[in-house]
Structures are given as structure tokens and as C-alpha cells.
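Entry details:
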Amino acid sequence: MKYAYLLINFLTIIFPVLLSFDKRVQFQKSWKFIWPGMALTGLMFLFWDVLFTVKGVWSFNDSYITGIKFFELPLEEILFFLTVPFSCIFIYACLNYYVTWSIPQAVSKLISVLLILLSAAMLVTYHDRLYTLITFSLLLVLLVLLQFVFKSPWLNRYYMAYIVSLLPFYIVNGILTAVPIVMYNNAENIAKRVGTIPVEDHFYSMALLVMNVGFFEYFKRKAKPVNA
């Protein structure tokens, strides 16, 4: 049981890695665009993770981790910020290849606006809950920048990928919170759950993934030769 969280990380990434060599999607050719953004995003989220662990926002069940820790974080939790974004970018890339239909840009913008308004409302209502405060602050800032400053044309595709990613999200986070491997302090969140998963996890994941996809798209675009 000490390897339970490690096994979850392995199962999360093994199929996307193996399927990366599909002759049609050829996702392995895009790996070089993933690593820089994953490193930048991972550093930010690991900072919050250390803070949340120290402040008691969540804790880890020693029965299901190897015991190897860095800055109070289990090795498995650090790997989580590699395996999950990689797998979700894989979903995003597959949808871009196989699904020609996209959410209309007007609808995508409306989704962004609604999420921004929801984030603002949550900040006003639950500003005294650390997990809620950081999660919705980060999501609000990211969406304002991506939608209104950078006018990112890929957000509609991202929202589609996020919806698809909810299936593995519920499996993985469901196990982590039901066993439990990760234990949450309800005094630092709104104390509402979908099954055993805190509501904030959905939006924390959304912020994590949109930041990774944003960097992925940026480094892909940067690598394209400029037409004379």
C-alpha cells in the first residue's frame, strides 16, 4: 500500500506515453513543447502545494506513500504535477486531431466570462478560506489574461479538452480522496464536495491545465518559422 499513490501516477501517464507514438497524432513530436511550460507551471503550483501542506490545507496519508519527501511534499505529489498535465495535454492534442468541431468563439468567451464572474463571487464570499482564495484568484487572473489580454484563440479547444479530462479526473481524484490518500481540511475550503472530491479541486485542475496548455501553445507557435 506504500506504493498506492506512486501507482496512480504511473497509470495516469503510461497510456498517454505509449499512445504518443500513434502514427496519426504523433504526439511524441510535440513533447519538446510540453516540458518548458510544465516546468514553469509546476514550479508555481508546487510553491502553492508546499504552502498548502505547511498551512494544513491538506495532508497525506503515510500509509499510501513511499515516505520520500522534498520540502514537506511526498515524491508522489511532485510527480502528480508532471503526470496529470502531460496526460491532459495528450487529450487536448488528440481532440485537436480527431475532432474537427469546436465550441464557437462567442460561446467560449461566454464560458470565460461566467468563470471569471464565478471566481470573483467565490473570492468575495470565501476570502477567508486559503484553498478557495488561491484557487479562484489564480483562475480569475489566468482567464482574464488569456481571454481579454492575449485573446487566445485556442480556449474553445481547451474547454472541450477540460470536459473530456473530467473522466480521468473523477477516477484519479476520486481514489485519492476516497481512500483517502490526500486529506483535506474543510476549514480551508467551502466544505462542499462532489462525491469525495472538494469543489475547489475542479477549478484548481482547470487553472493547472489551462496554464500548461497556454505554454504548450506558446512554445509551439514560437517554434514555427516566420514566413517572409
Remarks:
- The chain has a mean pLDDT of 96.
- The chain has seven helices and six strands.
- Residues 199-223 form the longest helix (25 residues).
